[in-house]
Amino acid sequence: MSITERKLKNGRIVYDNAFMYKNMRYKKGGFRTKKEAYSWEALIRSEIDKHGLYRKPSNKTFIEVWEDYYELNKQKYAPATLNAYAVAVNRIKNHPIADMKIIDIDYSIVQGYFNVLSRNHKMGVCRADKKIFAIVFKHALRNGYIKNNPIQYIEIITKEKPQEQNKKQVISIDEFNLICQYFLDKKTFLGESIYIALNIGYYTGARISEALALDKSNINFDDHTITFKNRLEATEGKEAMTLSKMKTNSSYATLPLAKPLEDILKEWFKKNPYDVICCDIEGQYLYYRNLYSHFRRMNAELDLNFHYHMLRHTYASNLINHGVNINMAKNLLRHATISTTLDIYTHSNNEDIRQALNCVFNSINENTPKLHNLTVN
User: Fold this and answer.
1) 39 shares its domain with 149
2) pLDDT at position 133, please?
3) 127, 161, 278, 363: which is deepest, by most CB within 10 A?
4) H-type alpha helices, 57-154
5) What does the pLDDT read at residue 262?
6) DSSP letter at 315?
7) Residues spanned by the domain of 121
8) H or E segment at 19?
9) How would you classify residue 205: left for phi > 0, otherwise alpha for psi between -120 and 50, otherwise beta?
10) Domain co-membership, 89 together with 112
11) Does residue 263 lie in a domain region?
12) DSSP-assigned states of every residue in 234-300
């Protein structure tokens, strides 16, 4: 019998359970009833049969699980990503959920957190916090602290209008030309340098940090290639810029150089005496956050809602919409997985889809039998 009865000093009866299962001994005491002791044993046996082992429930809090993950993985993130995570984590630390045991946090508690958050913040803030929750619960799940991940069921509903939540992600060639002309009309070295950065984004899909990190040695006019091997990051003081590792291993690549961009760069290299391609009048790297202020002014004057990453989305959509094989598009975008290419960066609208369908079926169904003209009496 694995369960034994024990009398406490105060006269209360409790039950202890000690049993062997698959060459391991398990022991726990102080159960109020035999049923509780039996239930505990049944739980352990079930866990071992299902997962091959049994782990004691963790007493770690939400924020402690985050700190465990952060210490193990911080080296793989860029400074900008770490800064963004720090902002979200500091926001979560101001909520009681931060100090709750991870095993006690269920769907209703997490949903309650986001219900309150969404009443006072925009979708971008909610998504940033949800990213931290997703990391914490995934790390907890992998380590056996929890059995279910509640974040997959969380819904975020904000007061933003639908068009504010789903901002346009691609731009037309007319809009792109308008933006380029805006900066060329400045007739300054900086304006032309921003124009070059825009064209690099449009014709390569480069992220802004990657475009600004390029120097002339990354361009090979003989082989007609462009090489991405660095990205630009602000240092802690946010003034000096430094080259750092790329986002993922697949971000490192040497790719074909589009003819329009090649022609633009050849002309620019005649005017720009510095090694850095996108630089200020003194040859220093452009600080991307300073570019954002130029984009804000441009948006206000041209009544646009442009941000640089739209160029990457536009590049991807242009590839897909013009028949580039999805595997080739993945390589050109330097994505780690095809799902990223499909799910995030292809923004076909209904008209694009309708035209594609018509193009396909009009060509293959030319000989399909047609209905006869009928006269209904």
Assistant:
1) no
2) 94
3) 278
4) 62-73, 79-93, 107-120, 123-142
5) 94
6) H
7) 62-165
8) strand 13-21
9) left
10) yes
11) yes
12) E-TTSSSEEEE--SSGGG-EEEEPPHHHHHHHHHHHHH--SSBSSB-TTSPBPPHHHHHHHHHHHHH
Q: Which pLDDT score, from 0 to 100, does residue 283 have?
A: 93
Torsion angle of C-alpha atoms 94, 95, 98, 99, degrees rounded to 10: 100
Indicate the pairing of strand 219-220 with strand 3-7: unpaired
Across the range 179-197, mean pLDDT stands at: 94
236 and 218 co-located in one domain: yes
User: Per the structure, how many domains does the chain have?
Assistant: 3
The dihedral sign for the CA sequence 116, 120, 121, 122 = positive
Asked whether 78 and 244 are in contact (CB, 8 A), the reply is yes
Q: For residues 168 and 13, give the distance between their C-alpha atoms in angstroms, rounded to a whole number.
A: 68
What is the rounded CA–CA span in Å between residue 188 and residue 230? 27
Distance between alpha carbon 324 and the CA centroid of its chain, in Å? 24
Give the C-alpha distances (Å, rounded to integers) separating 127 from 6, 85, 116, 156.
52, 11, 14, 8
User: In angstroms, rounded to a whole number, what is the distance separating the alpha carbons of residues 84 and 82?
Assistant: 5
Give the relative orientation of helices 79-93 and 123-142 as an angle to the nearest 10 degrees: 90
Q: Which residues contact 334 (CB under 8 A, 6 or more apart)?
A: 228, 248, 250, 251, 252, 253, 255
Instruction: Report whether 171 contacts 306 (CB < 8 A).
Output: yes
Q: In whole angstroms, give the CA distance from residue 205 to residue 225.
A: 14
Q: Which two tokens stand for residue 32?
A: 């109020």
pTM of the model: 0.57
